Structures are given as structure tokens and as C-alpha cells.
User: What shape does this take?
Amino acid sequence: MPSGKVSIDGRLVDGDEARVSVLDRGFLYGDSVFEVFRTYGGVPFAETEHLERLVRSAERLMIPMPVSIETLSSEVRATLDAAGGGDWYVRVVITRGTGPLTYDPSTASEPLRVIIAAPLSLPPAEYYERGVAVALMRASRPTDDARAAGAKASNYLANLLAVHEAKEKGAQEALVLGKDGQILEGASSNIFVVEEGRVRTPEPQPGILVGITRATVLRVAAAAAIEVEEGEVRPEDLFSADEAFITSSIREVMPVVSADGRTIGTGRPGPVTRRLREGYLQAVAEATGASI
Assistant: This one.
């Protein structure tokens, strides 16, 4: 199986030969930001939107961007070309760089950029045909703090532990609850509920990363005259919903049919979810020229 390709500060290496310093703050403290997207027919989808959010994340965490978006995009293309044919998972990481072993971020120098083109691993087709289960839980994450709100930071330990706990409960995703008990988002997804044909998703707030896929779904819904409201979503709203789904770059639009062991709606993917998934794939096809 191909290991993919990695670009480190513009230097291309095989995926299994990529190395960074153990003194890099991204390794030591999770002091870095990142973006993930995928290709369709070899063409990245929503690359510009992802790279623009990467810049905003870096600004939020006061990490100097080492190069322009245009240079990053060029390096993404070079990494994909080196990886070869087929579709790839792309991860772009900007770390604060190396420095003394201290918590003081001002001691770091020369931010590091890493672009990974790894083999694409997609969810099983049955997840879209039958839906998935989610588990609700609390998790204290660095980006819940207003100082880091909105940044896609690499310190994902709380998210990883939440997913592990969710899987132990037989679920495929963890939904994180806010301090007032409201649903914020998935560990690596945004959440939507559907009631009587109307869609609702949590409004942007600390603790929520406003997803690129989420934004595409909102545009698709508007074009299809599907009403969408941004507002508070509580566990009881999810339990009583007719339908629910999560969105992310790799999972796209994935139906949710149970939460904490409670069946949502009919226990099958619903018509609004199916329409939005079809619309999303059509949007991808139009943007990339890929046959989906």
C-alpha cells in the first residue's frame, strides 16, 4: 500500500521517511494549526476555503504564517503530483517551530509547514445506507476557551478520548456538550437536526469549529429551498428529531440514526438528509469536475 508523500518546508519525501525535530512545539505541546481536506478525481475540494481558515487559525494562535496561501496551494499540488494517481487525504499543518523547552511561545522561531498526502480511507458504504450512532459527552478542550475559539488547533487529545469513549459505547462519533448542556459539535464534525422538514444546526460560538463542509451544506440547502436555522440544539432536540446528520470533509454528509442508544426518527436515513447529501456531492462534482 502506498505511504503517500509529505512536503516539509517545501521538501518532498516519502510518507514513511518524513521526520520533524523532537523539539518542534507542534510535537511537544500541540502548538500548531491544521486543515484536512480530500481530493476528488485528483482535485482538492474547497482547498482555498481550508487554507484561508488555516491562516485565520494561525492568526488566532499568534503563529506567523511562513508562506502565502498561494505558495501553500502550489506545495499541495506538488505533493499530490508526487503521490501519484488516485484520491488522497490531505493534511496541512503549521507549527510554531522549534525553540527552548519552555511554555513561552515567543521563544520559538521559524514556523514549520508540513503537507501530507496520505491514502484516503473512507467510511463504509453501509454508514450512508443505514446511518450511524452518536454518543453525547462532555469534554474540556483548548478551543473551548474564548482565547482560542474558532482555531483548528492540533491539540486534539480531548477529542480523541471522547471518540474512544463513544466507540466503547457502540457509537461512531462523539457529540460534545457545552457548559450549559447544549450540543456544540462532533469530535470532528458539525451536527444538524431536522424537524418537519426544517434543518437546525448550532450557531457559531466558542467550542464550535465552523466547518467548510457545513458551509457547503448551508449553500446547498438554500439552493434547494430547504429552511435552515442556526440556533441552540439541546439533547432533547436531537432525541425528538425526525432526522439528524453530521458533516465533515471526509465523511461528507452522514446520517445519524441513534443517539445515546435512542432511535432518531424512523431509525433510517431520512429524505432531507438524502437530498442534502446528493446536493453536496453535486456541488463537489461541479467544483472539481469529478464523476461522483
Q: What stands out?
A: Residues 271-288 form the longest helix (18 residues). Residues 125-288 form a domain with the D-amino Acid Aminotransferase; Chain A, domain 2 fold (CATH 3.20.10.10). The chain has a mean pLDDT of 96.
